[in-house]
C-alpha cells in the first residue's frame, strides 16, 4: 500500500526493511489492468476495463474514467463521455504513464446530493482467525466526480449513510477480492489489501 511509486522503489531496494506484504503483491497490485484481469477472471464484479492503445481511441461507454495504469491519489484521472477521445498517456505522481479506461458506474443518489462517491475497505489477515474485512470508509465529494481525499473528498463511516445489508455485501466483495489477489503466484504471504469499491445506483 505505497501511495507513491518512487517511495516504494526506494524501500524495495532496501532488503533489510520489514514488509507486511510480499514485494510481488505490491508490484502487481499497482497495475490496474493486471488487477482487473485477475479479478474478472475469478468472477469478482468489476467495471469493464481496457488499455487505451492510442490517442485515437474513443470512449465506448456512456462515460468512462481514464486513469494512469499505475497511478494513485486521483492524479491524472479524467471523466470521458461516449465517443470522446481518450488520452493514451496521462500525468501521474511519477510522470507520464500509459492509461486504462474503466466504464463509469453511476452511484446511488444521496441526500444532500453528491457529485461522486467511492468506498475503501481494508482487508487484513489474522494468523489465527484468517481474513477479516474492516468496516468500509465512504468517500464523497460534493463537486468532483473523481473521488479522492487528495482532491478534496471527505471521508466517513459507510454505516452512517447506508443500510447494514449493503455494508455487509461490500465487506463480502472486499474479502473475495483480497483472497483472489493473495492466491496469485508470489502473493501467498499477503496480509493486507485495500480494496476500492463503487456502488451502482438507479439514475
Task: Write a compact overview of the structure shown.
This protein is α+β, with helices and mostly antiparallel strands. The protein has helices spanning 5-12, 23-29, 32-41, 164-182; strands spanning 49-51, 63-68, 78-81, 89-92, 95-103, 116-126, 130-133, 137-141, 154-157, 192-197.
Characterization of this structure:
The chain is α+β, with helices and mostly antiparallel strands and 203 residues long. It is built from four helices and ten strands, in the order αααβββββββββαβ. Strands 1, 2, 3, 4 and 5 form a five-stranded antiparallel β-sheet that branches. The chain starts with a helix and ends in a 6-residue tail after the last strand.
What's the arrangement of secondary structure elements?
Layout: H1 5-12, H2 23-29, H3 32-41, E1 49-51, E2 63-68, E3 78-81, E4 89-92, E5 95-103, E6 116-126, E7 130-133, E8 137-141, E9 154-157, H4 164-182, E10 192-197
Antiparallel strand pairs: 1-5, 2-3, 2-5, 4-5, 6-7, 6-8, 6-10, 8-9
Shape label: globular
Query: How would a textbook summarize the main sheet?
Result: 5 strands, antiparallel
- Residue-averaged pLDDT: 90
Strand content: 25-35%
Measured between the Cα atoms of the first and last residue, the distance is 34 Å
Amino acid at each position: 500500500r505505497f501511495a507513491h511509486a518512487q517511495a516504494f522503489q526506494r524501500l524495495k531496494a532496501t532488503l533489510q526493511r520489514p514488509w507486511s506484504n510480499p514485494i510481488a503483491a505490491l508490484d502487481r497490485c499497482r497495475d490496474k489492468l493486471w488487477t482487473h484481469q485477475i479479478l474478472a477472471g475469478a468472477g469478482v464484479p468489476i467495471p469493464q476495463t481496457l488499455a487505451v492503445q492510442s490517442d485515437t481511441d474513443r470512449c465506448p461507454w456512456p462515460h468512462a474514467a481514464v486513469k494512469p495504469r499505475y497511478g494513485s491519489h486521483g492524479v491524472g484521472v479524467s471523466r470521458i463521455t461516449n465517443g470522446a477521445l481518450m488520452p493514451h498517456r496521462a500525468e501521474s505522481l511519477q510522470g507520464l504513464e500509459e492509461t486504462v479506461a474503466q466504464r463509469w458506474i453511476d452511484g446511488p443518489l444521496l441526500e444532500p446530493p453528491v457529485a461522486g462517491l467511492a468506498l475503501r475497505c481494508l482487508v487484513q489477515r489474522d494468523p489465527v482467525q484468517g481474513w477479516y474485512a474492516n468496516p468500509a470508509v465512504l468517500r464523497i465529494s460534493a463537486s468532483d466526480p473523481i473521488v479522492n481525499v487528495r482532491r478534496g473528498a471527505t471521508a466517513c463511516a459507510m454505516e452512517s449513510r447506508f443500510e447494514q445489508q449493503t455494508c455487509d455485501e461490500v465487506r463480502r466483495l472486499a474479502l473475495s477480492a483480497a483472497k483472489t489477489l493473495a492466491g496469485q503466484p508470489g502473493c501467498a504471504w499477503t496480509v493486507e489489501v485495500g480494496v476500492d469499491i463503487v456502488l451502482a445506483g438507479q439514475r
